Amino acid sequence: MQPETETTKEVSIEKTKEELSNDILLAALKLFTEKGYFNTSLVDIAELSGVKNSAALYKHFKNKQEIARALYTWIIDRLSVSIDDIRRRNRKSSEQLREIVDLWFRLTDDAPDIMRFLLLLNVNEFLPDEIKLMETPPFIKILRILHGGIKAEEIKTVDSQRAYCYFFGVIENTLTQILSGALKKPADFYQNDTWEIAWSTISK
Question: Which residues contact residue 195 at a Cβ distance below 8 angstroms, ignoring those fewer than 6 apart?
Answer without folding.
Answer: 98, 101
